[in-house]
Amino acid sequence: LAERLQGFGTTVFAEMSALAVATGSINLGQGFPDTPGPPEVLDVARAAIGTMADQYPPGPGTPELRAAVAAHVERFRGLTYDPDTEVLVTAGATEALSAAMLALVEPGDEVVVFEPVYDSYAAAVAMAGGVLRPVPLTPPPADTEDAVWTFDPADLRAAVGRRAKLLLLNTPHNPTGKVFGRAELDLVAEVVLGAGLLLVADEVYEHLVFDGARHVSPATLPGLRDRTLVVGSGGKTFSTTGWKVGWTCGPAPLVAAVRTAKQFLTYVNAGPFQPAVAAGLALPDAYFTGIARDLQRRRDVLVAGLRAAGLPTISPEATYFATVDVRGVQPDGDGLAFCRALPERAGVVAVPAGVFWTAGHAHLGRHLVRFAFCKRDEVLDEAVGRLSRMS
Ligand code: PMP
Ligand code: GLN
């Protein structure tokens, strides 16, 4: 394994999903839904298979999907992009992020991220030869209503050094479920503009936001549109995480740069799924508000069940994930050891949140474990029942 990938090994999602299969446990680890996406979307994919949609689509993505991506971001965020020059279809958000790092980061350049950080970011930055500069997010006390993760503005400012090239921001945020508020994004904007950085905004959970929280697309802040790549995905929004249809929108020179990298990573992807996601993006507003309402209900089921089982839980404002403090049920407070033993103790699989902190900071999240609630009610009920009887 090349030096730049040392330490990345196997992702924790792969390890924990394999453990769930091997032990027959309920998998609340890797974030994927266990129900099909909307029929309007699935039917288009079925009809496309066996047609020319099975062959290479155009390099930047089909014109229909690029137009649908542009119309969707305009409808929900008020941002306008030219589908021909400012939209690129990618193999999931994952490829958009990796291709953006390869296209924009020089070896030794620094990339500012909020920590905990989604696992592919560190690898994507490392593959480009960049260096991560993490800004810590501090968890709120568990079991407290309306408590959210916060950061110190001084830490954000301090993370931006002379070699800083871009800020990679995920909102709504995995694994914390935090939605960055307007005042926080104003600070991000001040720092990005002040230091002349680029911004990459990963918004794959944009529609999975609960209660009164509101997702603000960072590119809508004054001055940011022209230096921001918005990254999205059909995986979460249409419950089709295996299709890997993602995209990025931004000013033409940035999108052209990402396209150059994407050409030699995968060239194109997901032929028959591109028209299907295009149909999904055109669904009425009620679809998008409906998925948030439905998921919020399931969040409530899982969070209430975890708390009733004696597990202190941070309830998220968005995403698929709730965070549990395991110190009361795992004497050494080690979330990884807890997750490795959980199939045996309860027949459930979760993900140790410590893996989302960078090497020197793993102690900050060592006692935290992430549980996914994007599952059917009966699965959640069975899982919390098992956890309440945990040995
Ligand atoms: N970003 C975040 C924050 C994610 O949680 C995920 C996947 N769950 C991705 C990117 C990757 O999305 P995709 O499956 O579209 O590659
Ligand atoms: N993003 C999903 C999660 O956080 C999983 C994606 C993956 O397996 N890489 O659980």
Please, what is the oligomeric state? single chain
Radius of gyration: 20 Å
Specify the CATH architecture of the largest domain: 3-Layer(aba) Sandwich
- N→C terminal distance: 40 Å
Question: Which structural class do you get from the secondary structure elements?
Answer: alpha/beta
What is the third-level CATH name, the topology of the largest domain?
Answer: Aspartate Aminotransferase, domain 2
What's the CATH H-level superfamily name of the largest domain? Type I PLP-dependent aspartate aminotransferase-like (Major domain)
**The CATH C-level class name of the largest domain:** Alpha Beta
Total count of strands: 13
**Low-confidence parts, pLDDT < 50 over ≥5 residues?**
none
* Anisotropy-based shape: globular
Measured by DSSP, the beta-strand proportion falls in 5-15%
The helical percent reads 25-40%
Helices and strands, in order, run as: HEHHEHEHEHEHEEHEHHHEEHEEEH
Family: Belongs to the class-I pyridoxal-phosphate-dependent aminotransferase family.
InterPro entries: Aminotransferase_I/II_large, Kynurenine-oxoglutarate_AT, PyrdxlP-dep_Trfase, PyrdxlP-dep_Trfase_major, PyrdxlP-dep_Trfase_small
GO cellular component, one term: cytoplasm
Domain Aminotransferase class I/classII large: 26-387
